[in-house]
Write a structure and sequence with these properties.
Blueprint: E1 2-3, E2 28-29, H1 33-40, E3 45-48, E4 51-55, E5 72-73, E6 76-77, E7 94-98, E8 101-104, E9 108-113, E10 119-125, E11 130-131, E12 138-139, E13 142-145, E14 148-150, E15 155-158, E16 172-177, E17 183-190, E18 197-204, E19 211-218, E20 225-227, E21 229-236, E22 241-244, E23 251-253, E24 260-262, H2 275-281, E25 298-302, E26 309-314, E27 319-324, E28 332-337, H3 342-351, E29 358-365, E30 374-376, E31 381-391, E32 399-400, E33 404-411, E34 414-421, E35 425-434, E36 437-446, E37 452-457, E38 474-479, E39 485-489, H4 514-526, H5 535-544, H6 549-561, H7 565-579, H8 590-601, H9 605-615, H10 619-635, H11 639-649, H12 657-669, H13 673-686, H14 691-696, H15 705-717, H16 721-732, H17 743-756, H18 760-772, H19 783-795, H20 800-812, H21 816-826, H22 834-846, H23 851-864, H24 869-881, H25 886-893, H26 897-900, H27 904-916, H28 920-929, H29 941-952
Parallel strand pairs: 4-12
Antiparallel strand pairs: 1-2, 3-8, 4-7, 5-6, 8-9, 9-10, 10-11, 13-14, 15-21, 16-17, 17-18, 18-19, 19-31, 20-30, 21-29, 22-26, 23-24, 23-25, 25-28, 26-27, 27-31, 28-29, 32-33, 33-34, 34-37, 35-36, 35-38, 38-39
Helix pairs in contact: 4-5, 5-6, 6-7, 6-8, 7-8, 8-9, 8-10, 9-10, 10-11, 10-12, 11-12, 12-13, 15-16, 16-17, 17-18, 17-19, 19-20, 20-21, 21-22, 22-23, 23-24, 25-27, 27-28, 27-29, 28-29
Length: 1003
């Protein structure tokens, strides 16, 4: 038996109320018989059972590396390398079976999709029959994600940046059933950029409607990393949907705080919309907490609040949801919408078949804006929880806790209180007091889904507008039968004054102090600014004070991460010279820790260990330095010494899954197997899906080649060379996935490992197999890959494969001049590798400034891969930059029109050329017969071609057909590029991918 858990909301007003006759409606299965009794007894259950969902499949990724460092994406860098980039989505959908994990109790039903980043796809309130999270009945990605496809609906967990880089990649899952009756679906993510790891556990408890998400973010690298965490909740909207923030929120801000407006009524133009003018024509049109009033794509994030909750409420359905998390770590509260207008509706149609529009109500932890990144120290783990629960017909919440939510209507006639709970409460007491005197009270029995009401006569100077402060003595409480407070509300006192707005930093020469130059550079680096580099600020700081400690260390860290070890060491030693001139024990020992990392890469192990020992004197760096030292000792089989170091860390510094794994390895070497087993068991209880711990436990279930590669390197660095080599052999046979191809690099890593062990014949064999392997989607990244490729080229400077791969890595690490040199050496007269030729062409134009060479290399790449539309598109974009006439460009493309029409971007460019050359009729025919898929930030390109074609044909301006995928925006959005061609400092998105961008050889 199956049951459809889709509520009937067909009567909801507004343009988004679908007919609900969709043939692809998602149908959820009942709990298996083995769990049915637990469920009927009020327990919580979880099980795995696939779902068939109508799905629009993404194309295969491009086989060319996309760097896109200067692409503006969510206000920060849209760099995607080394993740392969997907550029197209199927026009037609088809049924597909997706892995799914189901959670259910008496009140709530959830579905988690492991193959889509572990997102919650369904959040259904069984008590009201309401999907409190937007349920998308199809999987219909649009080109919104960092690496291409992104889907709307449910809850997306965004880290280490927004949107989640791995949002369309799988996570590993495990169901945990605890002694308290709770069930948790653990999802393990090994993010593709810095290679940090994260667990998020979706948890239901018996007798509770609360959805808890338990998160462990772990920096398993040796470098300090930046990150953010935004849980992105979608809610289905229409004219009667209202978002709510805490009552102390008076202002909201745009990305990077570039603009402010008051909230909930906007008191100034925002995103190009003059809300006060609209309100003068229609009362309430300035209320941006209502979806119906926002006509353009709009973000707003609260500026500040002392409260822990926010959410959304569907007044037509009489239901909604609350998010709650501790304000001290979770200040971020945000709404995003495409806007209730034709432009936004067109985007909605790109993302669903007929489930209508949605808003995103995002909750940020360790972040309160976008972009707004925080830091994770090496080995650091951050642990936190977020909570969501559905609410019945109480209205918007004016206060909420994980136990209950409350709404307080205030008017001249009195107050009306409505409250709801998240667990059964017998004999709860709802009271209203003024200056401690009870004016109304009621004892009630409540379950999730019930509403308790209480009315009281006029109280003081209560007024109809809940944003107006009331008598300070008024207080409303809901307590359980034992007197424990479930939720309490009282009027909010708000300080006057308008919050600050961000300003663009001055150019380096205009900044007066070295400190401000340093801090400006830190900001640009930490926030991953896409168009302004920190380097000029730091260089100016050193021009004024060559020995400045902080600036030298910042540049040393940058050099180290780019694999420029010798320059990094010079900067560190210069910083240490000043830092320790009068104080041999500085307050901050980061310089010693970083020196150890650099020395280790240079093979100077003894000096590295000395540096880490000194860094351990500083509590900030004790955990990172202690682990690095212990691992180095373990690598050279000094096992007891390694254990002694680990012993000094336990109980003194924070949790680090790496320490438990290293301890297991040491204990096993020393023959203390029972102790090792106990340590492993305890470590897995904390981190149940940690990859290294699972491998040490004998698990063979890990299938992700990138994860296995990283585990192999962990084993190598702990001195387990043979085990590492065995895992790398497994990686070399792993299937290629949209996450990439690890085969060639696994061979090069294995070769370097075997060389270090003196097994030179095996090393040579691995290098030979690396050269023979299919290198499609093999995009190396990180210092381990760089060191392995350096070793390969030291062994054989004529290795074209290693050189081409190293060039890709160097280009991605910002070493553009070195990459150009490598590609130039790799390309010979006989080269027929289209990827290599294209990469060399890209560098020739961007870095070498050699237009003729770039053009010639593109011509050779196309000759090597004549049916490759991506190459044809890039060649045409290069032709435009080189000043080719529209006639010449059209003559080049027209004979290949069928290939041209396989890409949206190339088709739009082609239509523009047809119009320019008097062939508007053909261009118009293409626009009316071919479907298009816009990409976020690229809106308007197809529409511009549409208008140009109609104008050329003497036709009136008209709205485009739905197949164009977009329509006209009613308002002018915030500027992204100024008239002089410069990108606005605060731009949040740009339509260009910016593959072609002249730049210096290196930062």
């Amino acid at each position: 038996m199956t049951v459809e858990l889709t509520p009937d909301v067909s009567g909801a007003p507004g343009p988004a109320a679908p007919s609900r006759t969709d043939a692809h409606r998602l149908v959820l299965p009942d709990a298996p018989p083995a769990l049915a009794e637990t469920l009927s007894d009020g327990g919580a259950v979880a099980w795995e059972e696939s779902l068939t969902i109508h799905t629009y499949e993404p194309d295969a990724p491009s086989r060319y590396p996309m760097y896109l460092d200067h692409r503006v994406y969510q206000g920060s860098s849209g760099k995607v390398y080394p993740l392969p980039f997907i550029e197209g989505i199927a026009d037609e959908g088809a049924p597909r079976e997706w892995k799914a994990v189901h959670l259910e109790n008496a009140f709530v039903r959830l579905v988690v999709l492991p193959e889509l980043g572990g997102r919650i796809h369904v959040g259904y309130d069984k008590t009201t029959g309401y999907d409190f999270f937007y349920r998308n009945n199809v999987i219909k990605p649009a080109l919104v994600g960092l690496a291409g496809p992104w889907i709307s609906g449910g809850v997306e967990f965004n880290w280490p940046q927004h949107h989640r880089p791995a949002t369309y990649l799988p996570v590993e899952t495990q169901i945990e059933r605890a002694d308290d009756g709770s069930v948790t679906v653990w999802c393990y993510d090994h993010e593709p950029f810095a290679r940090m790891s994260a667990h998020h556990g979706v948890r239901l408890r018996p007798d509770s409607s609360v959805v808890e998400v338990v998160v462990r973010l772990h920096n398993r690298t040796k470098e300090r990393q930046t990150f953010l965490w935004w849980a992105n909740v979608a809610a289905r909207v229409h004219d009667d949907y209202q978002s709510f923030f805490p009552e102390d929120v008076r202002y909201v801000a745009d990305h990077a705080r570039r603009a402010l407006t008051s909230f909930p009524a906007a008191d100034r133009p925002y995103y190009g919309v003059d809300y006060p003018a609209l309100a003068a024509e229609r009362e309430g049109a300035d209320r941006i907490d209502w979806y119906r009033n926002i006509p353009v794509p709009t973000s707003y994030m609260i500026v500040d609040s002392a409260e822990d909750y926010f959410g959304g409420f569907d007044h037509a359905a009489g239901a909604g949801f609350v998010h709650w998390a501790e304000r001290r770590i979770s200040p971020g509260k945000k709404q995003w919408t495409w806007g209730d207008a034709p432009f936004g509706h067109a985007w909605d149609a790109q993302l669903t078949d007929d489930d209508g529009p949605y808003v995103e109500l995002m909750a940020g932890v360790y972040t309160d804006n976008q972009p707004d990144f925080s830091w994770l120290l090496p080995g650091e783990t951050k642990l936190f929880s977020q909570y969501w629960f559905p609410i019945p017909d109480i209205g918007v919440a004016h206060q909420a806790t994980p136990d209950a939510a409350i709404h307080v209507d205030r008017s001249a006639e009195g107050i009306r209180i409505r409250a709801a709970v998240t667990s059964p409460q017998v004999g709860a007491m709802l009271t209203a007091t003024v200056d401690g005197v009870v004016v109304a009270a009621r004892r009630v029995d409540l379950r999730p889904g019930d509403v308790a009401e209480l009315n009281a006569d006029t109280v003081g100077d209560a007024r109809a507008d809940p944003s107006v402060e009331m008598t300070s003595g008024l207080r409303v409480e809901l307590r359980d039968a034992r007197g424990r407070l479930l939720v309490g509300w009282e009027p909010v006192e708000v300080t006057e004054g308008e919050p600050w707005v961000a300003a663009e930093p001055a150019l380096p020469e205009a900044i007066t102090s070295v400190e401000e130059l340093y801090l400006t550079g830190v900001h640009l680096s930490q926030y991953r600014h896409p168009t302004r580099s920190p380097i000029p600020y730091w260089n100016e700081a050193l021009r004024r004070d060559p020995g400045d400690v902080r600036t030298n260390l910042a540049l040393a860290d940058r050099d180290y991460r780019a694999g420029r070890y010798a320059p990094a060491l010079e900067r560190i030693d210069l910083a240490l010279k000043r830092l320790t001139r009068r104080n041999a024990n500085p307050m901050d020992a980061e310089a010693f820790y970083l020196r150890g990392l650099v020395l280790a890469r240079l093979g100077r192990r003894e000096e590295a260990e000395q540096a880490w020992g000194k860094a351990g004197w500083d509590a900030t760096w004790a955990a990172a330095a202690g682990f690095a030292l212990a691992q180095s000792l373990a690598c050279t089989q000094r096992n007891r010494a390694a254990l002694r170091v680990l012993d000094t860390l336990d109980g003194a510094v924070g949790h680090d899954a790496r320490r438990g794994a290293l301890r297991v390895i040491m204990l096993r070497r020393l023959g203390r197997h029972d102790e090792a087993t106990d340590v492993l068991r305890a470590a897995l209880a904390d981190d149940p899906l940690d990859a290294l711990l699972r491998v040490l436990g004998g698990s063979t279930a890990i299938s992700d080649a990138g994860v296995l590669r990283d585990v192999a390197l962990d084993l190598r660095d702990a001195g387990e060379g043979d085990a590492a080599a065995e895992l790398l052999d497994t990686v070399t046979t792993a299937a290629v996935t949209p996450a990439g191809n690890h085969t060639p690099l696994a061979h090069f890593l294995a070769a370097a490992l075997r060389d270090a062990q003196g097994r030179t014949e095996e090393a040579a064999a691995h290098r030979s197999r690396a050269r023979a392997a299919d290198a499609s989607w093999a995009f190396p990244s990180g210092l381990d890959d760089l060191d392995a490729l350096d070793a390969a080229l030291a062994a054989d400077p004529s290795d074209v494969v290693a050189r081409g791969l190293r060039a890709m890595l160097l280009y991605g690490h910002g070493r553009r001049g070195d990459a150009l040199a490598d590609w130039n050496r790799a390309v010979t007269a006989e080269t027929r590798d289209a990827v290599l030729l294209r990469n060399a062409a890209l560098a020739a134009y961007n870095v070498g400034g050699d237009d003729d060479t770039a053009w010639g290399l593109y011509a050779r790449a196309i000759a090597a891969a004549p049916g490759d539309a991506r190459l044809l598109y890039e060649q045409d974009q290069l032709a435009r930059r080189l000043g080719d006439s529209s006639a010449a460009r059209l003559a080049r493309l027209e004979p290949q029109e069928q290939l041209v029409l396989t890409r949206d971007d190339l088709t739009i460019a082609y239509v523009g050329l047809l119009v320019a050359e008097g062939r508007a009729g053909r261009g118009y025919e293409i626009l009316t017969t071919r479907p298009f898929h816009p990409w976020e930030g690229g809106e308007g390109a197809a529409l511009e071609a549409w208008d140009a074609a109609r104008t050329a044909l003497g036709m009136d301006v008209a709205d485009p057909p739905a197949s164009l995928g977009e329509t006209r925006a009613q308002y002018v959005p915030p500027v992204a590029r100024h008239d002089n061609g410069e990108t606005d400092y605060f731009a949040t998105s740009l339509p260009e991918l910016l593959l072609f961008s002249r730049e210096a050889a290196d930062d």
